Amino acid sequence: MAKLNPESVVILQKDDLAKLLNILRSHSYQTIGPTLRENAIVYDEIQGMEDLPIGWTDSQEKGSYRLEKRNDDAYFGYNVGPYSWKTYLSPARVRVCNASRSENGFNVVQETGNAPNYAFIGVRPCDVKAIKILDKVFINDFCVDNVYGNRRKQSFIVAVNCTEAGNTCFCSSMGTGPKSEEGFDLCLTEIVTEQSHFFVTEIGSDKALEVLEALSPQTASESEIKEAERRIENAAQSMGRNLNTDRIHDLMFDNYRHPQWDDIAERCLSCANCTMVCPTCFCNTVEEKTDLEGDNAERWRIWDSCFTLEYSYIHGGSVRHSTKSRYRQWMTHKLASWHDQFDTSGCVGCGRCITWCPVGIDITEEVSAIRNSSTVPEETVDQPR
Ligand code: SF4
Ligand code: SF4
Q1: Distance CA 106, CA 97 (A)
Q2: Helix, strand, or coil here: 373?
Q3: What is the pLDDT of residues 238-272, one digit of tens each?
Q4: Whose CA is nearest to atom 8 of ligand 2?
Q5: CB 130 within 8 A of CB 85
Q6: Does the bond joining 82 to the residue before it have cis omega, within 30 degrees of 0?
């Protein structure tokens, strides 16, 4: 059962949250949080609590997402929408360098990655973990990506534990939720009853202590902590889906010839939606642009997807020419080779790829189908394509 550390837990009342937002803004943070737009809950700049999807929830299923009214005024009474925080940390289009002609040739200037200081409000535990995973991709011993690195260094994370699980969620299976264990500055558990509305709040950094100073919050009582833990446990027990991760690395590699890949390919549109909504997918491409005089050129980094034919294009053609090979590459990378590369799973169990797949392909069902009729290939000399 998820336990909160009583030594670092305080209570923020409902009105304190508006004050917290103002304090963050006075510390020069641009506050980004959930908002209602185009019949979905998406992240955008928020100026005050009135911008939050108060009293709304999301109902999710395979290939289906609907907003519904709640019977309370919860601030964070939904799960996750189509956006994730990578939208801000590694934007979909970003200039990485530019070159301009000078008398002595070309002067090439790399982008410094300067961006606003973001305070992310309402980061779900699976997404806190997704950010930690992206840290390993973009900030490691081999390289530090300026664009991501600077945004990340300056970010302030207000996480929100889940007290209700969505139908497509499976964070419990992946060990990423419904409680955030680390990687946040503040972590809220929202408690709404007929009489009260407050947040049991864990403090996760010195930055957070500084921000909270002006609010002088009360230490949480034992019963308040227990109530928060009870609600988080309720989410763990009502998880919409489950993914058995036992020997998942070997299961994927041993079954690259499994007939289920053909079955998936019959349904998959190769539309790339799953990779766009996934909080850890980071494939990108670069485009170069020059002006008509040929004096200035810019290099832009743009989100791409392993589901496009062009993504695996190398000399002579694409390496993964079929939908089957592209889906297999995506799922095998997420659940198996990600471990080899980054020592972690590439999937945090947020369920977005299930909800936003137009034909309702469900990664948990596909893994089960392979596991239930696992076949180790007799020939292992040729490589999957
Ligand atoms: S693979 Fe699907 S469930 Fe896993 S993190 Fe990506 S979008 Fe979420
Ligand atoms: S699995 Fe679904 S979302 Fe992903 S590419 Fe195929 S059809 Fe699109």
Answers
A1: 12
A2: coil
A3: 999 999 999 999 999 999 999 999 999 999 999 99
A4: 271
A5: yes
A6: no
Domain range summary for the chain, segments of one domain joined by +: 7-94+110-237, 248-283+306-372
Query: Does the pLDDT value for residue 137 go beyond 70?
Result: yes
Range with lowest mean pLDDT among 89-98, 130-139, 140-149, 363-372: 140-149
Residue with tokens 């996760």, as numbered in its chain: 204
Q: Which of 304, 361, 362, 364 to mutate to test the pocket of ligand 2 (most atoms within 8 A of CB)?
A: 361
Q: What is the pLDDT of residue 6?
A: 64
Ligand 2 center to 361 CA (angstroms): 7
Residue nearest to atom 4 of ligand 2 (CA): 274
Q: Whose CA is nearest to atom 5 of ligand 1?
A: 347
Q: Which whole number is the average pLDDT over 78-97?
A: 96
Residue 230, both tokens: 């009870």
Q: Report the candidate in 122, 372, 143 with the shortest Cα–Cα distance to residue 255.
A: 372
Nearest-angstrom CA–CA distance, 4 and 14 = 20
- pLDDT at residue 378, as a whole number: 47
Ligand 2 within 6 A of CB of 98: no
Q: How far is ligand 2, taken at its centre, from the CA of residue 360, in Å?
A: 8
Tokens of 68: 């519904």
Whether 162 and 349 have beta carbons less than 8 Å apart is answered as no
> For position 385, what pLDDT does the model report?
46
